[in-house]
Predict the 3D structure of the following.
Amino acid sequence: MPLVIIWLVLMVGAFYLLLWRPQQRRMAMVRALQSSLRQGDEVLTTSGIYARVVRLGDDDAELEVAPGTVIHVARGAIGQVLTDHDETFDAPGEASGAG
């Protein structure tokens, strides 16, 4: 009987470590991303649309997908904020350490 209890505890522990905890981390990251959104940010929606944030509401957002074309989406549809590659990477030929 004690062997069954040990296996049950191990299975619950594995479930927690492999499934529940990573999902909680992902949800926390999504909440942090959506709370840090600002007007003017360039974003990628979960459906693959690249856009710029025009207006933010509590539960929704308006995104400009082309000049003069604004769509209204749920705030949860924003999957990631795109960064400016010029700020994070050196331009070709300007690699540090090149002599």
About this structure: The domain at 38-88 is CATH 2.30.30.60 (SH3 type barrels.). Helices lie at 2-35, 85-88. Residues 85-99 have pLDDT under 50 and may be disordered. The chain has two domains: 1-36, 38-88.
